[in-house]
Amino acid sequence: MAARARRHEGSADVHPRRHSEPVAARARRRGGPVAASLLALTVAVSGCAASQGSASTAAPAGRTAERTAPERSAAPATQPAREAAADLPAPSAVIPKDPARLARALTDTTARLRRAIDDWIRDGDPAEGRAPEPVVLLALHQQRIYRHLARNPKTASRTYPGLSKALAGEAEANVTAGRNLLSLVHPVSRPARFRVREPEPADVLLKHFRHAERRFGVDWEVLAAVMFVETKFGRVRSPSHTGAKGPMQFMPGTWAAYGMGGDVHDTRDALLAAANYLRASGAPRDYRRALYAYNHSWAYVDAVRLHARQIKRDIRNYYAYYNWQVFVVTTRGDRRLTGP
């Protein structure tokens, strides 16, 4: 998580790029987290962080990734779904290749996703269990469209003109963040297993983000974007190959310096420690400097800031990112580890 470039993209593609010895050495002297996050391409594109960018984690060639049983029961929300189930995109629905069709698909998917999120917030309880099926399936489809655009910049540039001005700006931000995170990913070529689980409920995480913001003055949207890129909101449970642990991917030395005696695997403790470290590294006065201390990659810094701006612009983007899934980039293509 800190002091090291990414390897996952919203999910867990590990194999980060290594920074020069002097930079890493300085980070160690400062207690900087030398971490390994999940570049969810989120870019959640990840999401950090495959198809689109949210870190992905999947076992290579023909091997299935190990999924651990959820550590808490997470029953889907039971409120009435306003979107007809028959009209929802399947988890592996074909993504259009033509820019005009991509623009229509992204416009339709985003509009329907926002309506479904509004229904969830109004009629359901984002503090309990999983999101309802329409939110889950539409968010996954949106993520896969963005991952496709992040991997195909020429197609993306021809897709933007077919979008409304507001959606074009949002799309360009998500695609740029996803492309940044994908640039830090090295495909997995050997069989691998990754431990994943259901994240804590969206509004439980939101409560933790806001508590950390009040205590350390670090914008909750930035903390959310970091967690999104690092572990897709805690879905990835495996330590990185460099030894970074927990939902915010702390190296042991950094945790000892900034963890305040907490549990690196506890979400609330990890978020407080991340806010503590970012504040000590320059936030909120200089987020670029603080995020670079957290992870020595300007591509990572820019991706996190782009996602944070999207969340700040419309909180529904937080709920959309929350439902983006973990992918792993392999030499034979992207593999999805979580979700429907």
Short description:
With 340 residues, the chain is an all-alpha fold. The chain has one domain (21-269, 286-336). It contains twelve helices and two strands.
Tally of domains: 1
Task: Note the total helix count.
Answer: 12
Low-confidence stretches: 4-75
Rg calc: 18 Å
Tell me the structural class.
mainly alpha
Average pLDDT over all residues: 82
Q: Provide the helix percentage.
A: 40-55%
DSSP strand (E) fraction? Answer: under 5%
Which sequence of SSEs, written as H and E, runs from N to C? HHHHHHHHHHHHEE
State the shape. globular
Q: How many DSSP-defined strands?
A: 2
Give the termini separation.
28 Å
Organism: Planomonospora parontospora
Domain Transglycosylase SLT: 209-296
InterPro entries: Lysozyme-like_dom_sf (IPR023346), MltB-like (IPR043426), Transglycosylase_SLT_dom_1 (IPR008258)
Protein name: Transglycosylase SLT domain-containing protein
